[in-house]
Design a protein that fits this description.
alpha/beta, 6-stranded parallel β-sheet, 10 helices, 6 strands
Length: 210
């Protein structure tokens, strides 16, 4: 039996996963988490065989959260289940320690296949994303400007594009307002933005608010 910790802040998604795994027969959900803090607490206290992780949750999330999980449980398999389908996000998630990556528009049978493969110590990447990454690599495609940003700068950039304020971002990431402002200044300098409007326009054009 594969024991899974589900980390997703959407009740409908968790409910669907509960139903899917309940029918599978060889998968059981031993814990649920709706934010980064709950994920880390569950990893420390609940024996499980893998984490099924959403990339966007309140508090610590995304690349940062993968790194935190790795620090607590170096060998615990992590399968990302996300709406983000950018090669940049996939590459960074895998580099941070994720064992697999699948988008939420995949079908249930493929998700079960991915869960079984990752839980058994293998790796899984959504075929469409893998193809995108290969073609980008082979073609020597010029990196988009935001790929030069650090993981923290990119996560803060995304939150600004979603309409969050400095205070809201500080609360969500559990960092100080000053730290948020410092990262914002750095990312604007790296990107050559002259104003908030420039930053938001670029973010919307590149779908960074998803």
């Amino acid at each position: 039996m594969i024991r899974i910790l589900i980390a997703d802040d959407h009740a409908i998604v968790r409910g669907g996963l509960l139903q899917l795994f309940g029918l599978a027969g060889d998968v059981t959900i031993v814990a649920q988490a709706t934010n980064g803090g709950q994920v880390l607490e569950s990893v420390r206290t609940v024996p499980c065989d893998m984490v099924l992780l959403d990339m966007s949750m309140p508090g610590i999330s995304g690349i940062d959260l993968i790194g935190r999980i790795r620090a607590h449980a170096p060998s615990l398999p992590i399968l990302v289940l996300s709406m983000h389908n950018e090669a940049l996000v996939v590459r960074r998630a895998l580099k941070a320690g994720a064992n697999g990556y699948m988008t939420k528009d995949g079908d249930p049978e493929t998700l079960l296949l991915a869960v079984r493969k990752v839980a058994a110590g293998g790796r899984y990447i959504d075929p469409g994303l893998a193809e995108q990454m290969v073609f980008e690599s082979e073609g020597g495609q010029f990196e988009q400007a935001h790929e030069q940003l650090s993981n923290r700068e990119l996560s803060i950039f995304r939150l600004f594009v979603r309409g969050k304020t400095v205070n809201q971002i500080a609360d969500e990431l559990a960092i100080s307002n000053k730290t948020v402002s410092t990262h914002k200044a750095r990312l604007m300098q790296k990107m050559g933005f002259q104003s908030n409007a420039d930053m938001l326009r670029y973010g919307i054009d590149h779908a960074l608010g998803k």
